[in-house]
Design goal:
Elements lengths: L11 E6 L3 E7 L5 E9 L5 H12 L7 E6 L2 E2 L6 E3 L11 H8 L4 E5 H12 L8 E6 L3 E7 L2 E3 L29 H10 L6 H9 L3 H25 L3 E5 L7 H13 L3 H6 L2 E4 L6 H12 L6
Parallel strand pairs: 1-4, 4-7, 8-11, 11-12
Antiparallel strand pairs: 1-2, 2-3, 5-6, 8-9, 9-10
Helix pairs in contact: 3-9, 6-7
């Protein structure tokens, strides 16, 4: 079944289970919002309480045609089992899709949160007209997803897109991971020199000309640029989309390009052909991507 075969005007619930919050909303099969939904606190260490929260969300709505779930960690592409729950350890080795499918009489789909963000961009975002692109999410860690040949690439063991585990150059042998380019690590570095700042406050401080802040930022940009360059030369994407709160800071895109240009002589020409830009979706990405996952499985039909 193709996307064009799906009957219109379905009522599809998207739930994004994050490490801090559970976000949800109701959409039709064109991605239009039918109900903005809401947000609940996540319970990380008690599966039964977490399930009760999910049931409560689902049962707020009647006449549902399907449910899409976004979760942290890893999801087995065949069984749908959450084999590693990431920030929510109570989801380790839990067949969440199976539990929900048994309880309700409509289709259920489940996918990793970074892959959901990537699917949202492919469906209705800045990757809509691209056959090959990368979505890199920068927050407490560095993750992401890839669309290759128009399809989500998850890899042989469903581990593709874990960009944070890449090794990059660093003078400190304990900081070789690209996870060091996360927003959390950037702010931790600032805290180590006596500044306790939010991401927004960091960039305000950066604009003030504080030398130590500039040095920390330059090191962070160089690390991020090295990771982006390595991804780019391996995958050769049309676009690299940056997600997370940091993506709204417009200066990072020019600074990333300038850093990449210093890596290798041919890189300036090569990277100039690749768009590096923010993701379209932010807080809604998980919900919308989970809905698209549901639709792309071709099970929401008459």
């Amino acid at each position: 079944m193709t996307r064009g075969d799906i009957v219109k005007d379905k009522r599809l619930l998207g739930i994004d289970i994050g490490g801090t919050n559970i976000k949800y909303g109701l959409y039709d099969d064109a991605g239009r919002s039918l109900d903005e939904g809401g947000m609940l606190d996540t319970v990380r260490d008690d599966l039964e309480i977490l399930l009760e929260k999910i049931y409560g969300i689902v049962e707020k709505y009647d006449m549902l045609d399907g449910l899409g779930i976004s979760v942290p960690g890893g999801v087995d592409k065949e069984s749908g089992i959450v084999f590693e729950g990431g920030a929510i350890r109570s989801l380790d080795r839990v067949d969440l899709r199976g539990i929900l499918a048994k309880r309700y009489d409509f289709p259920v789909a489940i996918e990793n949160d970074a892959n959901c963000a990537t699917l949202a961009e492919k469906w209705l975002g800045n990757g809509k007209n691209s056959e090959t692109f990368v979505c890199m999410t920068i927050g407490t860690g560095v993750g992401g997803g890839m669309i290759i040949g128009g399809k989500l690439h998850v890899g042989h063991r469903d581990f593709a897109g874990e960009f944070g585990y890449m090794r990059v150059h660093a003078s400190d042998k304990n900081k070789l991971s690209l996870h060091e380019a996360s927003t959390e690590m950037l702010l931790n570095s600032v805290k180590d020199v006596g500044f306790s700042l939010t991401g927004k406050e960091f960039f305000e401080k950066l604009d003030s000309g504080e030398k130590i802040i500039e040095e920390i930022y330059a090191d962070w940009i160089d690390r991020l640029a090295e990771g982006i360059f390595n991804i780019a030369v391996v995958i050769d994407p049309e676009k690299i989309l940056i997600g997370g709160g940091i993506s709204s800071q417009q200066r990072i895109y020019a600074d990333i390009r300038a850093s990449i240009a210093r890596l290798i002589e041919v890189s300036a020409y090569y990277i100039a052909k690749i768009e590096i830009m923010p993701c379209h979706f932010h807080n809604d990405a998980g919900k919308i991507g989970a809905i698209y996952k549901l639709l792309s499985e071709g099970v929401v039909c008459e």
